[in-house]
Amino acid sequence: MAELTISGTYFTATDPNNVQSVKDALIMIDQTGVIQRILQPSDQEYAAQLQSARQADRLLELDSDQYIIPGFIDLHVHAPQWPQAGLALDRPLADWLNHYTFPLEVKFSDPAYAQRVYHDFVHTLLANGTTAAMMFGTIHFDANMTLAKEVVSQGLRGFIGQVVMDNPDQTPDYYRNSSAKAALQSTENFIQAVLKMQSRTGQTITPVITPRFVPSCTDEALVGLGQLARRYNLPVQSHLSESNWEHGYAIERFGQHDTTVMDHFGLLTDRAVMAHGTQLTPGDWQVLRERRTAIAHCPISNIYFGNGILPVNRLLKLGNKLGLGSDISGGYTPSLYHNARQAVKSSQQLTDGVDNHLLAEQRGVQGSRITMANAFYLATRGGAQALHLKAGVIQEGYTADLQIVRMHRALMPLTTADIFQRLMYQTEQADICHVFVGGREVYKA
Ligand SMILES: [Zn+2]
């Protein structure tokens, strides 16, 4: 018998363009948290399985206005920036970093402060339907371990990076690794401590190689981080051609694009996730495709800091790996629902263009529009592919990382396709009723 059976209608992405819905299914989850079987009402065993799960009190039966969708996967989020989410978004990137972000991140030298923020942060991600996240911490070992402990105790699938930023030219005196050597040693200590925690708890908690971005790192640090990524076969995360400034910085310092620099240091692997990429060129896209490196699309953050819109439709068609990131606090919300909406809106603006002093046919980039199904794919299946997780899909053999949401009241008859749109456009945190990671309930409203 299944450990838990959920009966209800679900939505799941079958590929970047299509969403499948199955009405009144039985999702049967085994003791290891994997979806062992999915039965439909037409299946012979359906009635018997429903009955026995009910009798054993192992059935979660959804109301008629509740729906099951995969948990979302946030590919780019800065855990220590949670306290300032929604602040200072009117400032240019350099000002935002130097006057808001760095002074906030340095506070995580205090473990008690880290504990308070990270407890709330991890809870908030789960409450928003996010079941896995690739996170930046700070440069502080103790605070990063506090984040790791919160991830384990609350049940999020966590990919956590200890940030490296040792370049005196691009980081403030008060918030910088003392040297490349010290940064690399501390990173290796963090890797070993997290791997130990992983083997002790059996949970998905993974250390991530995390150069903040090319400007903040010396060559020595970048060389060492590339070596650590290889030696431990670990994921890598960073920012890549996020803005005009960042894109131009690499050209000025190395005479090469950010992508070429990262690649040179061995930081573009099939386990790497590079955030933003708004200024990448078709040549850069090709390098990322060849390396199987994913891009974390952060559409809300990009509106403020990106100086451009990532051409998601083109990249999906070319076969680049893509997922979605909230980029707290370059983005103001941890909700990937909001980010999926912005991804669709931004793509529409890229298609039409925004300067009405130009002729209509010269304003935009034709064919850039994406659908909500595309955005849903990024938040689920695309993210899982980037992190090598067998999740993001409701299918036999995949882990039961799920969210159950209540749809806003329907005042007219809705088709299944309408319901999907409704859920994606209107779900807020208060509408999320249950969240499961590996079949275990980690959040209940
Ligand atoms: Zn970021």
From TrEMBL:
Reaction(s) the record says it catalyses = guanine + H2O + H(+) = xanthine + NH4(+)
* Pathway(s) the chain acts in: Purine metabolism; guanine degradation; xanthine from guanine: step 1/1
GO MF annotation list: guanine deaminase activity; zinc ion binding
Taking the record's annotation, the residue ranges forming a coiled coil are: none
Q: What's noted on cofactor binding?
A: Binds 1 zinc ion per subunit.
Q: Which family does it belong to?
A: Belongs to the metallo-dependent hydrolases superfamily. ATZ/TRZ family.
Q: What does this protein do?
A: Catalyzes the hydrolytic deamination of guanine, producing xanthine and ammonia.
Q: What protein is this chain from? A: Guanine deaminase
Species this protein is from:
Limosilactobacillus panis DSM 6035
